[in-house]
Amino acid sequence: MNLNDLKLFEAVALQGNFTKAAESMFTVQSNVTARIKILEKEFGARLFLRTSRKVELTPAGRTLLQYAKQIDNLVEAAKLEIGEGGVVKGQIKIGFIETTMALKGPELVKELADKFPHIDLDFTSAMPDRLINDVLNQRLDAAFIPAPHSIAGLEEIHIMDENIVAVTPMSFNSLDELLNQSLVKTIVYDQGCFFRTRLEAWLVSNNILNYHKTVINSLEGVINFIECGIGFGFLPSEIISTFYSGRKIKTFNLPKEVSKMKTVLIYKKENLSSPVLKAFISICGIKNP
After folding, report:
1. What are 190-193's contacts with CB under 8 Å, separation 24+?
2. pLDDT tens, 162-177?
3. Model-level pTM?
4. pLDDT digit string (tens) for 237-274?
5. Which of 30, 64, 81 is the last residue of a domain?
6. 146 preceded by cis ω (within 30°)?
7. How would you classify residue 155: left for phi > 0, otherwise alpha for psi between -120 and 50, otherwise beta?
8. CATH code at 233?
């Protein structure tokens, strides 16, 4: 076994496909297949379940992926300590929900480029459940998600507190007027969205069980639909004040138990051996996690 074999193994685990893994590693599929077979023979276990549609890790494969990631981190740490200049290099993959990406993403990209110019940053936007799963399965190094969560195997760092508001068309003058419609109309993201969950819980707490939903998975789309009078939604107040203050929409404050949102950065504790992850955490304003 050599380090390149583990890199090929990680590529297959990430891509879920031998052909895509080969392309990402600038080699041919036959080479990837051959090297995986050698690894499976060496460890005495199947590492992947192969079907006509996709390739999935076996329990043994998931275990090896954990160790492979730790080996990557140790190699990078050794390079940093032994090499000249102590320059942190590499790539980091970070997940966000869309609103947090809009608020924090540009700031983090700029600061990372200024302080650690040899680190490449790969951003992914998704629902919280997907982000948690991707961190657990090493497809992401870390992710910003709304708290609380209680997932075994994950560490978290408090990043910021946000305030959620109801965002409505200009025609509404109060939340009571909104709630007293014959049919309440909402603009929401897919299931799994933190803001949708809060909105729906708030409606239920106000004895509104039947309401119209328009689902659109784009922040700009949500604002456009609200502005057109199609319905209302929940969003962070800072998003509105930063990007949409000039739009034909209104915001209303919500009860404290509904409006408070805490954002945390989650990661696997064993990945703190990565100099790249440590560098990223440092620009988030956190030291010595």
Report:
1. 190/127, 190/215, 190/217, 192/127, 192/128, 192/129, 192/130, 193/97, 193/127
2. 999 999 999 999 999 9
3. 0.76
4. 999 999 999 999 999 999 999 999 999 999 988 888 88
5. 81
6. no
7. beta
8. 3.40.190.10
